[in-house]
Amino acid sequence: MSIKQITNGYEVDCRPQGRDGKRYRKKFTTKGEAQKYERWLLSTQNQKDWIEKTADKRPLIDLIHLWYHYHGQQLKTGPRELKHLITINADLGNLRADQLTRQRFMQYRADKMAGGMKPASINRNQTRLSSVFTALIKAEEFHNEHPFKGMGPLKVRAPEMGFLTKAEIKQLLTNLSGDELHIAKLCLSTGARWSEAAELKTSDIVHGRVTFGDTKNGKNRTVPITDELLKEIAHGKSGRLFNGSYTVFLARLKKQNFDIPKGQASHVLRHSFASHFMMNGGNILTLQKILGHSTIMQTMTYSHLAPDYLNEAMKYNPVSTL
C-alpha cells in the first residue's frame, strides 16, 4: 500500500487483502484526503472477521526490516535488536510470515533449550519477535492474527542476586586507584552502571547532582552525591571526567575472589548499591527512580533485603493473636 504524489494531487494505491487481493486506486487533491481514504479502506475492506484473511506470504526478514523502518530505528538499541532479529530469522529457517505459527516457535524454543540456551534468553528472543508484529499491526502493515497471541514466556528461575558486603567493598576500594577507584565509588554511591559513570562529563554534574544521560532505557535520571565525593571526582577537571578502564577494574575485582554469581560481575557495583540501600531502610519506590527501572517489578528483586520485610508474619500469625 502507498500514497504517492502525482500531478495536481495524490494517488492511493492499496491492496487491503494483501498482494493477491483486490487493488484499489483513487486520486485526491490533498494528502490528508488520501490518508483518510487509505485508513477507511483498511478498516472496511480488510477487518471483516467473517472473511478469511489472505495469508501474508512475505518473507519474515522483510517484516523485520519493516519493523526497523517504523519502530526499531527510533530505539537506542535498535541496530543491536535488528541483528538479534536477523539471527532469530535464520535460526527459524528463513520462514515466510504465514509459516510462523505458535507450534513452529514452540519447536524453536524446545530446540534452543535442548542446545543449552537459557530460558531467559529464549524469552528475550520471543519478546523481540513478538514486538515486530505488534509494531507492524499498529502501523497497519500486518493484517493477520498476531502469531504470538496467547503464547506466554517460559518459566524462569529467579537468579541469585550477588552483592558485596561492607567489608568486601572496603577491600575492593583499597585495591583500586585512579579513575577506576573514582568510577567504582560513583557507582556504589548512585547505583549507576559502569558505562554510565565512565562516560560522564563535568557538565553532567550540577549543584551536587549527577545526571546520567546515555542510559539503557534512553531516559535521563539524576542522583545527588556528597560534597566529599564531588570534590574527589571532579576537582579541577573539565570535559570528560574519567579515563578509567573497565578491563583493569574487572581484573582487580576477580583477584579479590569474592563469591559473585556467574555473569554478575559487570553489575556487582549497581547490585551492591541497591542491596545496601534496601538493607539500610530505603524506600523501594525511591530505589526504582534511582535505578531508572521502567517497572516496579524489576526493583522488587531487592525488596526481601528490607529490614522490615514480612515482619507482619510475626505480628499477625494466629499463634501471636491467641
What would you say this structure looks like, in words?
Residues 58-137 form the Core-binding (CB) domain. Pfam families: Int_N, Phage_integrase. Residues 159-315 form the Tyr recombinase domain. One of its GO terms (molecular function) is DNA binding. One of its GO terms (biological process) is DNA integration. The strands form two sheets. This protein has a three-stranded antiparallel β-sheet with strand order 1-2-3, with helices on one face. Strands 4-5-6 form a three-stranded antiparallel β-sheet. The chain has helices spanning 31-46, 60-70, 78-92, 102-114, 119-138, 166-174, 178-190, 194-198, 227-234, 246-255, 268-279, 284-291, 296-299, 312-316, and strands spanning 2-6, 9-14, 24-28, 205-206, 209-212, 221-224. The mean pLDDT is 88. With 322 residues, the protein is mainly alpha-helical. Helix 2 (60-70) runs antiparallel to helix 3, helix 2 packs across helix 5 and helix 7 (178-190) packs across helix 11. Helix content is 46%, strand content 8%. The longest helix has 20 residues, at 119-138. The chain contains 14 helices and six strands. The relative contact order is 0.07. It has three domains: 2-46, no CATH class; 60-138; 166-305, Intergrase catalytic core (hpI Integrase, Chain A), CATH 1.10.443.
Strand order of the largest sheet: 1-2-3
Number of domains: 3
- What is the overall number of helices? 14
Q: What integer value in Å does the Rg equal?
A: 26 Å
Mind summarizing the main beta sheet?
A: 3 strands, antiparallel
**Beta-strand segment tally:** 6
**Can you tell me the overall shape?**
globular
CATH architecture identity of the largest domain: Orthogonal Bundle
Assigned CATH class of the largest domain: Mainly Alpha
Beta-strand share of residues = 5-15%
SS-based class: mainly alpha
End-to-end span in angstroms?
73 Å
Low-confidence stretches: none
What is the string of SSEs from the N terminus onward? Answer: EEEHHHHHHHHEEEHHHHHH
Enter the CATH topology name of the largest domain: hpI Integrase, Chain A
Chain-averaged pLDDT:
88
By CATH, the superfamily of the largest domain comes out as Intergrase catalytic core
- Percent of residues in helices comes to 40-55%
